[in-house]
Automatic annotation (TrEMBL):
It holds the Pfam family Aminotran_1_2. GO terms for molecular function: kynurenine-oxoglutarate transaminase activity; pyridoxal phosphate binding. SUPFAM superfamilies: PLP-dependent transferases. Its EC number is 2.6.1.-. Keywords: Aminotransferase, Pyridoxal phosphate, Transferase. The keyword Transferase applies. Its cofactor is pyridoxal 5'-phosphate. GO terms for cellular component: cytoplasm. InterPro entries: Aminotransferase_I/II_large (IPR004839), Kynurenine-oxoglutarate_AT (IPR051326), PyrdxlP-dep_Trfase (IPR015424), PyrdxlP-dep_Trfase_major (IPR015421), PyrdxlP-dep_Trfase_small (IPR015422). The gene is ybdL. This is Methionine aminotransferase. Belongs to the class-I pyridoxal-phosphate-dependent aminotransferase family. The keyword Transferase applies.
C-alpha cells in the first residue's frame, strides 16, 4: 500500500476558494494575485529577449546582471552591501526559495518555530526535511508576537525561526522591539532565521520595512527571501530570490541546482532591465497599494464588518462577528455561494484552528472590482 509523505494535506484553500469563485461567478478577493497587468517595460523586454534568442539555461545562481541589480536594490533600500555573485540566488518563485532554505538547514528531528497564521508551504517543507514545526499562535485583532512564549518554545533541537514581514495573512509588520527580541534569541541559542519578505516593498502609513538585511548580526544568520511576482504584478512568472551569507548561500545552491537548476532566462534579463531603468516602480508600490487599501476601507465603512488594521501586504482582514455565527470556513463558503464574493478563512493557517471570526480579502484588484465587492458586503 502506498504511504503518503504528506498524508494530512489536500487541495490548498487558495485553489478551493478560487475554484468556487469560478463556479459561482463570484468576485475573487481570495487568492493573492493582482487583477492588473505587469509593467509595460517588463513585458516588452521579455518579448525582446525571447526574440533575440536568449532562451537557454542561465547560470544556476542567476543571470549576473540581475544578481547585481538585486544587490544594488538592497544597498539602496537597506544600506547593506552584499556580494551579488556569492550571496544572491535567483529562484523559481519565493516558494522554491523557502523550500530550498528549509532543506539546507533542517535535519531529522530539528525543530523550526513558525508563527500562526502561517503561509501554508512552511510546514510541509519542514516535514519533508525530517523536521518538526513548532507553532506559536498570533491572535486577533493585534497578531503581535509574544517573545516570552517564543523563548519558552525553544529547545536544544531548535534549528531556525521563520519570520514573515510584512505578514501574510495578518498584514502586520515587525517593529523595532521585535527585531531586538529576535536578535537576542538568535544570539543566545545560535539558531538561523528564514525571513519571508515577499511583500517587502508594500508597507503603509510611512512605516518602514525592517528587513533582516538591515541588521549586520541578523544578516549573518538569515536566509532573506523575496518575490518579483509581488513587486512587479507578475505572479505567474514564478521569479524570486534568496539572499544569504556566502557560506549559507553555497549550501543553498547545492540543493537549488537539483530542484530547478535555473530559472526562466529571458525573464531574468527583463527583470534586470526593469530594476535598472524603472527602479521608481519599487518606490511607488506602497502608495499604489495604500490607495487601494484606503478605497476598500472607505467603501466598507457602512458595513457590519469590523475592519482590522493593515500595515502592509495587499490584504485586509475583516471580523465578521456582527454578520454571522458561522465558523470562518463555513462563512467563506456561504459568502462565495450566496453573496458572490470569495475570501479566505484565517483558521486554515493555524495548527490549532482559531475561533476568531476573521476573513482575509485581497485588494490587489482594479478599483471597480473593489467597489463592487464592497457594495455587496455592505448589504450583509
Amino acid at each position: 500500500m502506498f504511504e503518503s509523505k504528506l498524508p494530512n494535506l489536500g487541495v490548498s484553500i487558495f485553489s478551493q476558494m478560487s475554484g468556487l469563485a469560478n463556479q459561482f461567478s463570484a468576485i475573487n478577493l481570495s487568492q493573492g494575485f493582482p487583477e492588473f497587468d505587469a509593467p509595460e517595460l517588463l513585458k516588452t523586454q521579455l518579448n525582446y529577449y525571447v526574440q533575440q534568442g536568449v532562451n537557454q539555461y542561465s547560470p544556476s545562481s542567476g543571470v549576473p546582471r540581475l544578481q547585481q541589480q538585486i544587490a544594488n536594490l538592497v544597498e539602496r533600500k537597506y544600506a547593506a552591501k552584499i556580494n551579488a555573485a556569492e550571496q544572491v540566488t535567483v529562484t523559481s518563485g519565493a516558494t522554491e526559495a523557502l523550500f530550498v532554505a528549509i532543506q539546507t538547514i533542517v535535519r531529522p528531528d530539528d525543530e523550526v518555530i513558525v508563527f500562526d497564521p502561517a503561509y501554508d508551504s512552511y510546514q510541509p517543507a519542514i516535514e519533508l526535511a525530517g523536521g518538526k514545526s513548532v507553532h506559536v499562535a498570533l491572535n486577533a485583532p493585534n497578531y503581535t508576537i509574544d517573545w516570552q512564549i517564543v523563548s519558552q518554545a525553544i529547545t536544544k533541537n531548535t534549528r531556525a525561526i521563520i519570520v514573515n514581514t510584512p505578514h501574510n495573512p495578518s498584514s502586520k509588520i515587525l517593529q523595532p522591539q521585535d527585531i531586538k527580541e529576535l536578535k537576542e534569541l538568535v544570539s543566545a541559542h545560535n539558531i538561523f532565521v528564514i525571513s519571508d519578505e515577499v511583500y517587502e516593498h508594500i508597507t503603509f502609513d510611512g512605516q518602514q520595512h525592517l528587513s533582516m538585511l538591515r541588521d549586520e548580526q541578523l544578516r549573518e544568520k538569515s536566509f532573506v527571501i523575496s518575490s518579483f511576482g509581488k513587486t512587479f504584478h507578475s505572479t505567474g512568472w514564478k521569479m524570486g530570490y534568496c539572499i544569504a551569507p556566502t557560506h549559507l548561500a553555497t549550501e543553498f545552491r547545492k540543493i537549488h541546482q537539483y530542484v530547478t537548476f535555473s530559472s526562466f532566462t529571458p525573464a531574468q534579463h527583463a527583470l534586470a532591465d526593469m530594476l535598472e531603468q524603472q527602479g521608481e516602480h519599487v518606490d511607488e508600490l506602497s502608495d499604489f497599494y495604500q490607495q487601494k487599501r484606503d478605497l476598500l476601507i472607505k467603501h466598507l465603512s457602512d458595513s457590519r464588518f469590523n475592519i482590522l488594521p493593515s500595515q502592509g501586504t495587499y490584504f485586509l482582514l475583516l471580523d465578521y462577528s456582527d454578520v454571522s455565527d458561522l465558523n470562518d470556513v463555513d462563512f467563506c463558503h456561504w459568502l462565495v455561494e450566496q453573496a458572490g464574493v470569495a475570501a479566505i478563512p484565517l483558521s486554515v493557517f493555524y495548527k490549532q484552528p482559531s475561533n476568531d471570526k476573521v476573513i482575509r480579502l485581497c485588494f490587489a484588484k482594479n478599483d471597480e472590482t473593489l467597489i463592487e465587492a464592497a457594495q455587496i458586503l455592505c448589504q450583509l
